[in-house]
């Protein structure tokens, strides 16, 4: 089932890209970036569950909902980055838990939620998450609806 594979592949690829950006290119996530990751973790679990538990369509639909929710959070975050509205928070830091805690806090990079660290064609990572995740969530639901009519 295509919807099932999308529900598993899209959050896995988006999370993989986020971790590649973070650890490979030093684009550390702000607090709102983390908010976008949590629904993708849930979507992965729900999609994986759909391969082993019934009713499969329910787990796939819930995974699609989680993906869509991540997209909505990404849209909100993109609006904060583009100064369309004010965010709930403005900054966060990534604090390493090894060594001296005070030194880790004092030397942690300051990550702003209202400044996009990278963009492609003028669209930030949060904006891309909005487009991809909302589109994928709707596509999953459409595929599920189409397959239920065909049954």
Q: For the largest sheet, list the strands in their spatial order.
A: 1-2
Question: What is the CATH architecture assignment?
Answer: Up-down Bundle
What is the CATH C level class, in words? Answer: Mainly Alpha
Global geometry: elongated
Contiguous low-pLDDT stretches (5 residues minimum) are: none
How much is the average pLDDT?
88
Distance between the termini: 13 Å
Largest sheet: 2 strands, antiparallel
C-alpha Rg, in Å? 17 Å
Helical amount: 55-70%
Number of helical regions: 5
Q: How many structural domains does the protein architecture include?
A: 1
Number of strands: 4
Strand percentage lies at 5-15%
CATH topology name:
Bromodomain-like
SSE series: HHHEHEEEH
Structural class based on helices, strands and sheet pairing = mainly alpha
Supply database-style keywords.
151 residues; 68% helix; Bromodomain-like; single chain; two-stranded antiparallel sheet
Could you characterize what this model shows?
The protein is mainly alpha-helical and 151 residues long. It is 68% helix and 7% strand. The protein contains five helices and four strands, in the order αααβαβββα. The protein has helices at residues 2-25, 31-50, 56-81, 101-106, 125-150; strands spanning 91-93, 110-112, 119-120, 123-124. Strands 1-2 form a two-stranded antiparallel sheet. β3 (119-120) and β4 form a beta hairpin. The longest helix is centred in the middle third of the chain and has 26 residues, at 56-81. It is elongated, with a radius of gyration of 17 Å.
